[in-house]
Design brief:
The structure is a homodimer of 153-residue chains. The first copy, chain A, has 153 residues and is mainly α. Chain A has 7 helices and 2 strands. In chain A, strands 1-2 form a two-stranded antiparallel ribbon. Chain A binds a DNA duplex (30 and 30 nucleotides) through residues 1-6, 23, 25-27, 35-39, 41-42, 44-45, 55-63, 84.
DNA sequence: CTCTCACGTAACTTTATAAGTTTCATGAGA
DNA sequence: TCTCATGAAACTTATAAAGTTACGTGAGAG
C-alpha cells in the first residue's frame, strides 16, 4: 500500500499560508512539498469545499486560510480530506458467515475502532495555532503574524 | 493502497487450527480464507520462524499451533508477521529541513505513535483463547477442545 | 481588448505493495 | 516409488495515492 501523506502535506502548506499572511499559489506550495501544483489543487479542493480555505484566480491570487488558525483543528483538515482510511491493516471480510472469523473481526475491529477514536479525538484537540506555536528557530515573521492575531485577508 | 489483511487472516486460521486439534493443511486454510495455499504458506512462514506454529510434511502433515492458545497473544502474531505498518497515513518526509514541516511531523507523529502504542498494548493483552471464548453458536467441538486444555499434537 | 496569471478539472501514467499464481524442489509416509 | 504436503523463487494482478499532461475559466495588468 502506498501510504497517504495528504494530511501531513496539507498541514505543512496551511502553516506556510498562515505564516505568509497573503495568498500562496499552488505552484509555491508544490515547491514546499516537492510535488506538482495539480496535486496541490486536487487535495486543497476538499479543504475549500469544507470552508477551511478560499482560492482566488488571477494576478495576486492563490490560497488563503479562511478561519483563524486557532479555530482550525487537525481533525477539521482530516475530515475535509474525506476522513481517509487511517489503518493499513484490517479485517479480511467484514461480513463473514464463519463464526470464527466473526469472533476475530469483533476482537480486532474493536481494538482498531478504539485507536481510531483516539486519533480523531487528538486531531480535533490540536489547532493550527497549536502546531504553529511549536515551530522552532528564528521564524520572527511567523511569530509576529501569530501574536497580532489572524487577519482575514 | 491495498489494505493488509494478514493479521486478520492468520488469526482466523489459527483458531481453526486450535479447533481442529490436528494438523491443518495449507490447502484447507486457503479454503477457509478463500485464497491460495501458497499465500497461506508464505504468511505462515513468519509464524513458524517465531515459534508460534510448526509445520509437517507428507501424509497427515500440515500446521499445528506450537503453544497453548492462552499463551499466544494477538500481539505475538502481529510481531511474527514483522509488525507490519499499522497506519495508512503518515508524514510525507520523516527528516525535513523545513522547520514548519518538522513541527507538523512532531505533532502528527506523536498522535500516531500514541495510537500505535495503544493498539500494540491491546493486541498483547488478548490471547487466542480469549478470542476463542467469544466464538458464538454451536461450536461444541471447539469448546470441548478448549475446556480440555491444549494438547501439543 | 488581450495577455498573463492562477485556479478547476478531466484523463491518463506511475509507483508501491499485498495478494494471487505458476512452477519446481524436497521430505515424509503409505 | 507414488502421493501428499511444505518450501520457495519468480512472476502477475489489483488498488489507490501520487504524479503528469492538457485544456478550460475567470481575474487583474497593460
Amino acid at each position: 500500500m502506498r501510504f497517504d501523506t495528504r494530511l501531513s502535506g496539507m498541514l505543512h502548506v496551511l502553516l506556510h499560508m498562515v505564516e505568509s499572511g497573503k495568498p500562496v499559489t499552488s505552484e509555491a506550495m508544490a515547491g514546499y512539498l516537492g510535488t506538482n501544483a495539480v496535486v496541490v489543487r486536487r487535495t486543497m479542493a476538499g479543504l475549500r469545499d469544507a470552508g477551511l480555505v478560499r482560492s482566488e484566480k488571477g494576478h495576486g491570487g492563490g490560497w488563503v486560510v479562511a478561519r483563524a488558525p486557532s479555530d482550525v483543528s487537525l481533525g477539521d483538515v482530516y475530515s475535509a480530506l474525506g476522513s481517509p482510511t487511517l489503518f493499513a491493516i484490517g479485517n479480511r471480510n467484514e461480513n463473514p458467515n464463519c463464526l470464527v472469523e466473526k469472533a476475530v473481526n469483533a476482537s480486532l475491529g474493536e481494538t482498531l475502532r478504539e485507536a481510531e477514536a483516539l486519533v480523531v479525538a487528538r486531531l480535533h484537540n490540536i489547532s493550527l495555532a497549536d502546531v504553529a506555536d511549536t515551530v522552532g528557530g528564528g521564524m520572527e515573521e511567523f511569530k509576529r503574524v501569530m501574536s497580532k492575531g489572524f487577519k482575514d485577508v
